[in-house]
């Protein structure tokens, strides 16, 4: 569903621009390995929107110049080409945006909630000089609500899972041993500033057996 909508949105935008033939994607080798059973023992792990999840019929031709490179190799290329530091060190982000980080059905309300929480995570990670040190740091909005209390008022809101991992190539990853103080600051800010979330949990799963993204 995500892969289909992803392409259709680009096709609609291409009409507004004019004559557009190609869609340039930042597909990396881990996406390919996980999405397609290649020659050898590797098996299909999940369908990434940009590999196994694309629709059969497309009006745009896909270009993927980086599909056989790992993220660390892409950064080396970017440095050689003298890209800005903020571009080189930008953390991996899913092409379809936050929709795959909303578990279950995604709508505007949930996406707005997650977008606010994600911005707080990014701010706190950067403030504590961790942005370049960790591989990824983001939130996942879970499809469950729990009871909480704000002042004297009972709340019944969503749970956010905080995911921060260390990795060198995205093929394997370990959960980041962030200080309790920083985790507490992130949690407190999200719960106090983001309407719709009243609980934050920290994902301490490594890859494997878990994957970095939840979907």
TrEMBL record:
Involved pathway(s): Purine metabolism; GMP biosynthesis; GMP from XMP (L-Gln route): step 1/1
Entry's transmembrane regions: none
UniProt xrefs under Pfam families: GMP_synt_C
Enzyme Commission (EC) number: 6.3.5.2
One of the record's GO cellular component terms: cytosol
Entry-linked CDD domains: GMP_synthase_C
UniProt keyword annotation of Transmembrane present: no
Assigned keywords, A-Z: ATP-binding, GMP biosynthesis, Ligase, Nucleotide-binding, Purine biosynthesis
Stated name of the protein: GMP synthase (glutamine-hydrolyzing)
Organism of derivation: marine sediment metagenome
């Amino acid at each position: 569903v995500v892969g289909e909508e992803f392409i259709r949105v680009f096709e609609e935008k291409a009409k507004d621009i004019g004559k557009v033939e190609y869609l340039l994607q930042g597909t990396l080798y881990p996406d390919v390995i996980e999405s397609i059973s290649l020659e050898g023992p590797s098996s299909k792990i999940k369908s990434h929107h940009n590999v196994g999840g694309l629709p059969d019929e497309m009006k745009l031709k896909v270009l993927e110049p980086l599909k056989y490179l790992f993220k660390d190799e892409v950064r080396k290329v970017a440095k050689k080409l003298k890209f800005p530091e903020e571009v080189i060190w930008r953390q991996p982000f899913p092409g379809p945006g936050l929709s795959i980080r909303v578990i279950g059905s995604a709508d505007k309300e949930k996406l707005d909630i997650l977008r606010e929480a994600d911005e707080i995570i990014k701010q706190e990670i950067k403030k504590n000089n961790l942005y370049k040190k960790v591989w990824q740091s983001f939130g996942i909005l879970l499809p469950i609500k729990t009871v909480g209390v704000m002042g004297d008022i009972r709340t019944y809101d969503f749970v956010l899972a905080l995911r921060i991992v260390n990795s060198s190539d995205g093929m394997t990853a370990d959960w980041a041993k962030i200080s309790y103080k920083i985790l507490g600051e992130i949690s407190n800010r999200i719960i106090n500033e983001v309407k719709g979330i009243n609980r934050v949990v920290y994902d301490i799963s490594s890859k494997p057996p878990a994957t970095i993204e939840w979907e």
